[in-house]
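Sample entry (236 residues):
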Amino acid sequence: MAQIVLDPANLKKAMRHLAKVDPDFARAIKEVGHPELRIVPSGFGGLMRSICGQQVSVHAARAIWLRLEAAVPSMEPADFLKLTDEDLRAIGLSAPKMKYGRSLASDIVEGRIDFAQLDTLDDTAAITMLTQAKGIGPWTAEIYLMFAHARPDIMPGLDLGLVIAAQHLKKLRKRPDAKGLLKIAEQWRPWRSAAALLLWHYRRNMPDWSKKEVQTVAKPIVRPAAKTKKKAGKKK
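Predicted structure, serialized as tokens:
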């Protein structure tokens, strides 16, 4: 049986489903429209790109990634393992990221992470396989499966952006934790990946919630009274 993927046609189907089962999503779609699909490379390159982006700005991550692509055009793990510490430092990888990259490459070369087998596994088993590698945590594995393998029913509960968006979409007084978000997301099955896309999209279109809006009461404008010039009296 072919695995369902979150492609453009299924994204539209998912949006109809989410709007039907959740009035808040129906409102969000009216306000901000449909999200766009995101696609990232699969295999070693896709996971390595996530490692490059850990704890640095988007611009810094892109610069590191472009240098890595230039150094390893094939983006094959065996070729990555040929790079020296000096090579990796020149690319911009920190010592931990060098360690993570080599651990990931070794896991793939030695067969502990098998991308062909990955597509035959359910989400939980696929995440377990990916998180064997140092530097690949649950969030990275979930994001990778969503965007590189188009898994349709992933909800990264540890994603702060999703938590904040869900709080405001649902008008919750308290921000939910990861378990709370996953509980809310149960009604969004089997399209939780599409729900995550819509929440990210909604958050980018939300007003700035980081500052409280200051409501000001218009006060009447009081202008100083104009000074009247005394007319000079005629001298008698």
